[in-house]
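TL;DR need structure tokens for one chain.
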Amino acid sequence: MPARPLKVAWITYFPVEWLPEAPPDFQSMPRHHPASWQRVLFRAWQEQNPGLELHIVALRKQFPRTCSFRIGSTTLHCVRTWGGLRAPSLFWYDTWLIRKRLRQIRPDLVHAWGTENGAALVAGRLPYPYLVTVQGLMTWYCQVVPRPPLYNRVAARLERHSLPRAPLVTTESRFAVEFVRRHFAPRRVVQIEHAPNPLFHRLDRRPPAHSVRFVVNGRFHYAKGTDLLFQALNRLPAEFPWELIHIGAPAGPWADQLRARFPHRFWQRVRFLSHLDLQEVAAELAQATLLICPTRVDVSPNSVKEAVVAGVPVVGARVGGIPDYVLPGQNGVLFEPGDLEDLVRALHQALAHPLFSKGEVDPDTLRRMREYLAPATMARRFFEAYQLLLAAN
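>> reply
TL;DR here they are.
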């Protein structure tokens, strides 16, 4: 008699509105963060069918109603919440709602995605074996970014409370593994890379032949190094034929101040795009010469992984997990985070490189990175983590 499937419940902010199988009133919601790594894992398990029954429990005040629906072997539980009760209650409101739902599901284990929205905190209050996946390190963010928002400071405090108690923590990159061990010392830390969508693994590249097309995919923000980006591009020779596609529109006073620092002729070379779906992001990468990632603080930016598996050379900050994916001289150039002069040097080095200047990378490196960042690898590693957790209980 075959063993029953492993029953796993995710506690997560899940991008339900991005799913074509979602009810129409959910698809018509304003699109928030796409959390593409969760959708990649969800789809990989749909294809592999590894003996897993997945329940995704998502709480959001924007949901039009509370409902559940199935996609293959996965059930999505969308729970509509009242606004203003979640963070102020230190997520006890979430705990109450999720506990009621899990009593019906009766999972073998709980997978808490991130500390930002209280998932790790809630999981520690429930009577189930659980693991926590780090999506962003708020403690590190608050060390790097001046005057971080209140919500980020609260999330950092919650990390210090929840991560040391977690039986198992997964995170991306060697940097994040060491940071979690050093600052929180949970019982066990496992490195599992979040894979980009398979669409980027099979991209048909068409970079321009007679100009340079830079692409940046990230928020217009100090933490993302946007100020360094524009200062560095402004240092390129005026006659040099470049253009920039910035995926992420400027917003807020800081963006207005930054835009005022550069002349109109500079902004004529810059095009801002926003609210792109995966196919539209892939279309921009297909025509990119280089991706620039000037971030000051990022665990493992998904935009870099997408570029790496697509075969787009990357000029990236030597921060977080970026050095795990960008290998100098093979698929990109690294520079010291926050260092304008080093970013300028890195751009000149990339533009003088015989491959990178044409939007190409070393083929063997591309093959190895595609294997390392494959969705199938991500799915296998998380299933192994679930088995490891249950074996320890």
